[in-house]
Design brief:
The complex is a heterodimer. By secondary structure, chain A is mainly alpha-helical. Chain A contains 13 helices and no strands. In chain A, helix 2 crosses helix 4 and helix 8 packs across helix 12. In chain B, helix 2 packs across helix 3 and helix 2 packs across helix 4.
Chain lengths: ~220, ~150
């Protein structure tokens, strides 16, 4: 039986099936908590844990899906290109926004880790939670964090951003599309960006730009971590 | 990778789309080629910088200098962008691999992730709005001054 689960088709099939269920539930119950991403991740986790399937087996297929994250990030260039005039006009707000946002992200993560008395390596693994995975991997290794935990923090933040972005927009009463996009990208990288694309083209493009900028700012900040 | 098959069929039937609509296989090849270049550059950079973000910059420059047109990769891009959440699923499931190490600290960690995400969102959004407001005010004042001088 274990050979069946080690087939790449298992991970791919499970993910697609779970995602379709997520979309179905989301159509029936419109709520932030029924995000297809959240539902499908929980479903896949449940199947893998309950059936005691090794994570490595799921990942044979799962890795094939993850490969597409790179190209999916790259094609955000299309959205950026179509929003070029807007970006030219508002380059300064976008830049200052990502710088302030990244500082708040790293700073608040540090202070909260201290408040919860987390140990040093765990704290260092949490500081990169708002940047996209490749950035987080490199930075966390440099500053004495545990890369696998850093990735877990990044992914949790991304899913959280995708789920709660609409609520956060209402909570902070943000009206401006540029502000919404930059904020989503800065706080929750590609995960949040997947939601920003759904909200609008400007939001998606700005969120995409913010992924790169926030990562760069955090690389610079990591000198002080 | 999976859903382009039906698209492919639709597009080959629909020849009226014109020559600008590159075949889906070529679109994939072009995009993956750009990603390969991005990843290669990333390996040689002195600072950690993800290949995906470099690929985004390369693709942007290619579009900006009109080396390629948006139509050349539109279908593939739409497919990827619309399904971005799906591609994140395996990363999410991967959290299982560290769940044992995190078991003792799982609640504080979730609190930290939630709080910092809220704070970062608010700080970024309000900063951007504030700077946009300031910028618009300055350019408006500048325009008024210009009108007076005339």
């Amino acid at each position: 039986m274990s050979e069946v689960f080690a087939s790449p088709f298992f991970g791919i099939f499970l993910s697609i099936f779970a995602y379709e269920i997520g979309i179905l539930i989301n159509q029936k119950v419109k709520s932030a908590f029924t995000s297809p991403l959240l539902i499908s991740v929980v479903l896949c986790m449940a199947v893998v844990s309950i059936c005691k399937i090794p994570l490595a087996s799921y990942n044979v297929g799962g890795n094939l899906i993850s490969i597409f994250l790179g190209p999916a990030t790259a094609v955000l260039a299309l959205s950026v290109y179509s929003q070029l005039s807007l970006l030219k006009k508002y380059l300064l707000p976008v830049l200052i926004g990502t710088i302030v946002g990244s500082c708040v992200s790293v700073g608040s993560a540090y202070l909260l880790c201290k408040a919860f008395h987390l140990d040093y390596t765990l704290t260092q693994s949490m500081l990169t939670k708002s940047v996209t995975t490749p950035f987080a991997l490199a930075i966390s290794a440099n500053i004495g964090g545990i890369p696998s935990i850093a990735v877990a923090a990044v992914v949790m933040t991304g899913i959280l951003g995708a789920v709660f972005a609409p609520l956060l927009i209402r909570l902070f009463r943000v009206k401006n599309s540029i502000a919404i996009g930059v904020a989503i990208g800065t706080c929750s990288h590609a995960g949040g960006t997947s939601k920003a694309i759904e909200i609008g083209e400007t939001e998606g493009a700005m969120s995409g730009i913010a992924i790169g900028l926030a990562g760069l700012v955090t690389v610079i900040l990591s000198v002080f971590m | 990778m999976f859903a382009f098959l039906p698209y492919h069929r639709v597009r080959t039937i629909n020849v009226t789309q014109g020559a600008t609509n590159m075949k889906i296989m070529l679109q994939i090849g072009l995009l993956f080629g750009i990603c390969l270049v991005g990843e290669s550059i990333s390996v040689f950079l002195p600072i950690p910088f993800p290949g995906a973000v470099i690929s985004m910059i390369i693709l942007f420059l290619l579009l900006f200098f009109r080396v390629i047109q948006v139509d050349h990769i539109r279908q593939k891009a739409d497919f990827l962008l619309k399904n971005m959440a799906f591609f994140l699923i395996p990363a999410g499931v991967g959290i299982l691999s560290v769940i044992d190490t995190l078991r003792n600290n799982i609640l504080p960690l979730i609190c930290i992730v939630i709080l910092t995400t809220i704070l970062t969102f608010g700080a970024t959004a309000w900063t951007v709005q504030l700077v946009i407001a300031l910028q618009d005010k300055i350019s408006l004042a500048g325009r008024k001054k210009g009108e007076k001088n005339e």
